[in-house]
């Protein structure tokens, strides 16, 4: 395992990701991690970039024990400065920030220890790299030698003369450094001698064994499913591990997509053989949403809280039934589909005050149930979850599903949510998605939906004037959902969707397309 210590750079998680792509297992921990508290010894350590300056009083620093472990260390950007700071305290604010492409000249050293040149082995002498930093070294710490330069950074790469310690000013983990992966491979595989045996198949075996050991011979697990990728993959894995001792619950909140509850039921019970209870709580949810017209956060709160109540009631029923059954013990575990980015988010070193956010999960909110949380996906990134889902036999359609928000269609019905409004929004959404799939665009688009606007417009339908509602279509492309751009459909496609919606959905006489990017818009309209 390669240990990545995170100093808060926006690219940190990519380091872990790239290493796993090389089949090297890697874990990322906050930079403040005490190495004596680790239960395993890393084969090598990577210090990430970060938004701080090492010379600030409150800057985060790596546990000095890292330099005593005797394992190779690679510092990237802030990580390079951190190594220089550890040895010589010679980092300065640069005259100007350097951000973007740069051309690196690699320096080779015949006559020096072999490890000095090992980081750039097999790479060309001129490399395109990506820079993003403000500080730079004023000079090299003693015992280090320059291994790469750029016009702006005379110490763009350095290596220790006798130990496998390296620092680079650029970011090898981003795709803007085209040969960056080769450099990471040189470090992890050739210099650290990390094993290259991490595969999804191995992960599945290990995780199933871990779940079985954790839950025991009789233990039972309960978990909510939504039909989304994460909860379905987590459920499929639990089923593989413990069979019928896993109980899935789908809460139908009345604001799911058209036919969704039935589809989830079909997939989970028929295809995956998972034990599933569907709770139809539509009326309860819609009753509580009544009269909430212009407060999206209130909608979210009502739906979130009611979900917890309904799920808890159901969990108690299943728990009571399980306790009475001769074959098994009480349910004591709660399954959560937490992914690695959520874990990183909650353990990351945030700001100079080193506050650690507590992870939000349903487990803590279920009163008096004393459930322990089990998170089989906590080491995986989204695309790895998709790969795992495919391995577990999930249909491609499910594996590549667009994300769908917990509050569902309720935050896509601007204004009051009523059964009638749900019917209209759902139907229009169904047509839009059906056409997107038919046009082969579903995978190109990151998220798409139809929203119902709280206004009426005039139209002529048949020979009559009508005064009815307006559907807004939204479709975006994004890689991280933090920024997004609207999808440039061609006119013929939009014409077809618009015609179908106006003709087929009662109560709609106009369709508009949302051409707002994020920012300033958000993806959802409420
Ligand atoms: P925004 O609208 O903030 O959405 O640009 C970014 C992503 O988050 C999803 N989203 C939610 N998901 N509960 C959820 O589970 C919510 O309240 C919620 N609000 C937004 C949204 O669908 C998009 O993928």
TrEMBL record:
Main location group: cytoplasm
Database matches in PANTHER family: GMP SYNTHASE [GLUTAMINE-HYDROLYZING], GMP SYNTHASE-RELATED
Pfam family, one: GATase
Alphabetical list of InterPro entries matching this protein: Class_I_gatase-like, GATASE, GMP_synth_C, GMP_synth_GATase, GMP_synthase, GMPS_ATP_PPase_dom, NAD/GMP_synthase, Rossmann-like_a/b/a_fold
CDD domains found in the cross-reference section: GATase1_GMP_Synthase, GMP_synthase_C
Function: Catalyzes the conversion of xanthine monophosphate (XMP) to GMP in the presence of glutamine and ATP through an adenyl-XMP intermediate.
Domain GMPS ATP-PPase: 198-401
Binding site for ATP: 226-232
Complex formation: Homodimer.
PROSITE patterns documented for this protein: GATASE_TYPE_1, GMPS_ATP_PPASE
GO MF term list: ATP binding; GMP synthase activity
A GO cellular-component term linked to this record: cytosol
Highest rank taxon of the organism: Eukaryota
Protein name per UniProt: GMP synthase [glutamine-hydrolyzing]
Keywords annotated in UniProt: ATP-binding, Glutamine amidotransferase, GMP biosynthesis, Ligase, Nucleotide-binding, Purine biosynthesis
Pathway stated in the Swiss-Prot or TrEMBL entry: Purine metabolism; GMP biosynthesis; GMP from XMP (L-Gln route): step 1/1
EC number(s) per entry: 6.3.5.2
Reactions listed under catalytic activity: XMP + L-glutamine + ATP + H2O = GMP + L-glutamate + AMP + diphosphate + 2 H(+)
Compartments in which it is found: Cytoplasm, Cytosol
The keyword ATP-binding belongs to this UniProt entry's keyword annotation: yes
């Amino acid at each position: 395992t390669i240990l990545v210590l995170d100093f808060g750079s926006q690219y940190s998680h990519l380091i872990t990701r790239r290493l796993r792509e090389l089949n090297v297992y890697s874990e990322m921990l906050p930079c403040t991690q005490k190495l004596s508290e680790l239960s395993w010894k890393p084969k090598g350590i990577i210090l990430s970039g970060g938004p701080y300056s090492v010379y600030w009083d409150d800057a985060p620093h790596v546990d000095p024990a890292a330099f005593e472990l005797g394992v190779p260390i690679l510092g990237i950007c802030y990580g390079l400065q951190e190594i220089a700071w550890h040895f010589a305290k010679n980092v300065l604010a640069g005259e100007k920030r350097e951000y973007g492409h740069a051309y690196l000249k690699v320096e080779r050293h015949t006559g020096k220890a072999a490890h000095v040149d090992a980081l750039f082995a097999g790479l060309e002498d001129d490399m395109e790299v990506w820079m993003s930093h403000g500080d730079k070294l004023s000079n090299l710490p003693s015992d280090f030698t320059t291994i790469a330069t750029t016009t702006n950074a005379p110490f763009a790469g350095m290596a220790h003369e006798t130990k496998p310690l390296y620092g680079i000013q650029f970011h090898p983990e981003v795709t803007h450094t085209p040969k960056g992966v080769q450099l990471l491979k040189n470090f992890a595989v050739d210099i650290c001698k990390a094993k290259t045996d991490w595969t999804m198949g191995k992960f599945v075996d290990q995780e199933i064994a871990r779940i079985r050991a954790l839950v025991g011979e009789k233990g039972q697990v309960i978990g909510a499913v939504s039909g989304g990728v994460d909860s379905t993959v987590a459920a499929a894995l639990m089923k593989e591990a413990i069979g019928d001792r896993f109980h899935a619950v789908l809460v139908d909140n009345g604001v799911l997509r058209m036919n969704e509850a039935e589809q989830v039921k079909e997939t989970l019970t028929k295809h995956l053989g998972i034990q599933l209870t569907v709770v139809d709580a539509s009326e309860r949810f819609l009753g509580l949403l009544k009269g909430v017209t212009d407060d999206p956060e209130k909608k979210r709160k009502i739906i979130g809280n009611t979900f917890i109540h309904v799920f808890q009631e159901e969990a108690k029923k299943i728990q009571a039934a399980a306790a009475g059954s001769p074959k098994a013990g009480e349910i004591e575990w709660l399954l959560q589909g937490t992914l690695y980015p959520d874990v990183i988010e909650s353990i990351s070193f945030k700001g100079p005050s080193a506050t650690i956010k507590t992870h939000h999960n349903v487990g803590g909110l279920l009163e008096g149930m004393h459930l322990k949380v089990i998170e089989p996906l906590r080491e995986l990134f989204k695309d790895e979850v998709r790969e795992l889902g495919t391995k577990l036999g999930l249909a491609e359609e499910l594996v590549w599903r667009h994300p769908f928000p917990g509050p569902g269609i309720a935050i896509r019905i601007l204004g009051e949510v009523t059964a009638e409004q749900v019917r209209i929004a759902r139907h229009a959404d169904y047509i839009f998605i059906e056409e997107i799939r038919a046009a082969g665009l579903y995978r190109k688009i990151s998220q798409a939906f139809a929203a119902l606007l709280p206004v009426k417009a005039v139209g002529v339908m048949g020979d009559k004037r009508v005064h009815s509602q307006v559907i807004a279509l939204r479709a975006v492309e994004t890689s991280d959902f933090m920024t997004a751009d609207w999808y440039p459909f061609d006119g013929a496609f939009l014409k077809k969707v618009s015609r179908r919606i106006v003709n087929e959905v009662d109560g709609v006489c106009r369709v508009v397309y949302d051409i707002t990017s994020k920012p300033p818009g958000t993806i959802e309209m409420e």
